[in-house]
Design the sequence.
């Protein structure tokens, strides 16, 4: 019911004539409008795969690495489906995860444990927990749905080489570790350039910078490096993305338990 | 070191044919496509703490095991193959100096169909403290007493996926015998076991077994319904000519049901089986079940760790606590998952017999080391063990096990 209402609101906002919108809009309406434009810019890719490397650094600068292969499938009217295969560290190599994201509703998630060949349904309640010991929380890498946040437009600001919208987002799903994020979105291509995360006490927790954007077939932009710095612990995580592939066809029916067991 | 698979099944014509075909295929494959290789090597030090004086049982041992894993694919990734041999050497127990083929199969995927031929492992079920519906593979008791290690099972399987559910048929030629530890191992059965098993079926270990499973999910529910007919993986015992007990494998039919409901921080789990015997003399029909929950707290102590609380109740319609471990018992456990870079985990659990108060306690912990190794510590203790309880023979088998497993 809530979802339906929300989509009605979206349509209403999207239908507003641009000139009228600029005058009569509240910062919340303008914020939502930007979020919808971002979502539209990054819709229609249907599927892609990519390799991710994570470099975790503690305060003393000691590093450890993680490697994961991701496959993603876009679902109309619901969250995306994804398959992740863990490759490093070697003691968890072969472990795989299947996720059906559902926006505000809890996601469905299964974990495959290769040593005993067991597929286990797991809870997705742990939104704010760290992903593989990194500075990235599970909620930071979830399917980005418009309805997961409420928005507020804070103004225009230059950000590095870009001219950006400054946008505040408040998580609407349960179990978030944040009160809000402030993001900078470039005006030309609606790409995320930077996000500041504020913890439950509203203190600045971490910053995520998106570096090295490339355009892929279909006009989709992806950054090949995320830099995450935790300002409270001094730890940091670098995410390197390689082998983005929007062209090799993936099928929705392959995002299932059987595929989870034979990923390689 | 005689591979179990050869020792246990040389008489299985079907299996031999399968093995031959697979070997040929692997030979051909090694020239086609890329082969991914990884190797796991484990060092293990086991110390027994409470040995009865003068029992003649050894009190510690050292073991090393090797498990290479070869895999590849061809035919545009639609046909996959895998070969996983396993070998262990043990300083004390000759029974633990053994080898096995854990996996050796060809898997072909065609639209919604999956065809597998060869040796493989299949896991069914949801419960943590007892794997009740899981029946395809023989348990490898030589590796550990928790029942998580399995012997490779020769099989032909056909699976059909229907989106949110899957139907799979299994043909299982060639039975794998249960292996037992040497009589002087503290974890062995309290009697000498003959290595000449007895089968109810005239075909012995060549009896052809069948199984079917339908499993899937709907919303918060994951379900599985299974059926098996063939040689029981669990052995009974009958007196042998030489004074030792002979393992006896009856013919059984078993229906299984497993359910899990996942909501927010709760996982609700249930497994049940109904096992029937062809002849009353071979065993009494029975029903067994396990059910319980796991509840998780996340980000405790400023995000230092997550804590899962587990409780499972066991039921078995056979009124004989002397031979059945999980007859009327409760399992209580705690799972600590630390959020550190080393992925430290601790699982502590106890099983209490609700009738006679016999209790076992088990703690398992592990953490990553040197980026590609895992250090493990496991300890188990039995106390208040009632002389009438099935675990009475293990009452003096408290042990600690330190292991280091490298992955290359």
Sequence:
């Amino acid at each position: 019911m809530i979802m339906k209402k929300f989509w009605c609101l979206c349509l209403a906002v999207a239908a507003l004539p641009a000139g009228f919108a600029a005058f009569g809009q509240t910062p919340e309406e303008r914020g939502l409008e930007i979020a919808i434009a971002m979502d539209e810019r990054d819709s229609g890719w249907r599927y892609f795969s990519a390799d991710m490397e994570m470099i975790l650094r503690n305060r003393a600068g000691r590093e450890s690495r993680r490697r994961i292969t991701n496959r993603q499938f876009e679902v109309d009217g619901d969250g995306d489906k994804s398959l992740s295969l863990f490759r490093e560290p070697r003691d968890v190599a072969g472990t795989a995860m299947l996720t059906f994201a559902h926006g505000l509703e809890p996601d469905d998630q299964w974990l495959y444990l290769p040593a005993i060949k067991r597929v286990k349904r797991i809870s997705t309640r742990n939104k704010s927990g760290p992903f593989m010991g990194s500075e990235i929380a599970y909620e930071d890498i979830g399917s980005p749905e418009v309805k997961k946040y409420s928005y507020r437009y804070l103004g225009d600001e230059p950000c590095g080489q870009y001219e950006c919208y400054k946008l505040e987002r408040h998580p609407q799903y349960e179990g978030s570790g944040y009160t809000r994020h402030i993001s900078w979105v470039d005006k030309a291509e609606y790409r995320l350039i930077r996000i500041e995360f504020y913890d439950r006490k509203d203190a600045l927790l971490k910053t995520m910078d998106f570096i090295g954007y490339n355009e892929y077939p279909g006009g989709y932009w992806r950054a090949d490096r995320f830099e995450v710095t935790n300002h409270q612990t001094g730890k940091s995580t670098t995410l390197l993305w390689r082998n983005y592939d929007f062209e090799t066809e993936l099928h929705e029916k392959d995002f299932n338990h059987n595929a989870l067991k034979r990923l390689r | 070191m005689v591979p179990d698979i050869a020792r246990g099944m040389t008489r299985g014509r079907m299996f031999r044919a399968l093995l031959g075909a697979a070997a040929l295929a692997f030979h051909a494959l090694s020239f086609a496509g890329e082969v991914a290789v990884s190797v796991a090597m484990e060092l293990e030090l086991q110390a027994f703490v409470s040995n009865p004086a003068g029992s003649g049982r050894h009190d510690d041992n050292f073991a090393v095991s090797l498990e290479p894993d070869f895999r590849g694919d061809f035919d545009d990734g639609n046909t996959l193959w895998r070969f996983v041999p396993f070998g262990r050497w043990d300083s004390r127990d000759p029974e633990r100096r053994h080898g096995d083929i854990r996996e050796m199969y060809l898997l072909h995927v065609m639209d919604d169909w999956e065809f597998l031929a060869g040796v493989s492992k299949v896991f069914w079920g949801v419960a943590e403290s007892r794997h009740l519906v899981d029946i395809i593979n023989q348990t490898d008791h030589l590796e550990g007493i928790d029942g998580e290690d399995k012997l490779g099972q020769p099989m032909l399987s056909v699976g059909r996926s229907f989106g949110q559910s899957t139907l799979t048929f299994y043909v299982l030629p060639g039975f794998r015998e249960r292996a037992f530890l040497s009589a002087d191992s503290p974890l062995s059965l309290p009697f000498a076991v003959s290595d000449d098993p007895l089968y109810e079926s005239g075909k012995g270990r060549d009896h052809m077994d069948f199984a079917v499973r339908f499993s899937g999910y709907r919303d918060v529910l994951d379900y599985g319904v299974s059926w098996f007919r063939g040689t029981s993986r669990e052995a009974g015992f009958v007196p042998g000519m030489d004074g030792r007990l002979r393992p006896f494998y009856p013919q059984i039919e078993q229906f299984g049901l497993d359910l899990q409901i996942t909501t927010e921080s709760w996982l609700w789990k249930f497994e049940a089986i109904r096992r029937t015997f062809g002849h009353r003399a071979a065993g009494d029909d029975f029903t067994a079940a396990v059910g319980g929950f796991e509840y998780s707290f996340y980000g405790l102590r400023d995000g230092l760790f997550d804590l899962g609380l587990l409780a499972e109740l066991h039921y078995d319609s056979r009124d004989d606590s002397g031979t059945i471990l999980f007859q009327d018992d409760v399992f209580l456990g705690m799972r600590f998952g630390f959020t550190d870079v080393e992925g430290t985990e601790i699982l502590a659990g106890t099983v209490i017999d609700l009738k006679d108060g016999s209790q076992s306690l088990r703690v398992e912990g592990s953490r990553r080391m040197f980026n590609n190794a895992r250090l493990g510590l496991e300890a188990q203790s039995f106390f208040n063990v009632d002389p009438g309880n099935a675990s009475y023979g293990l009452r003096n088998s408290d042990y600690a096990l330190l292991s280091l497993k490298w992955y290359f």
About this structure: Chain B has one domain: 4-407. DSSP finds three helices and 21 strands in chain B.
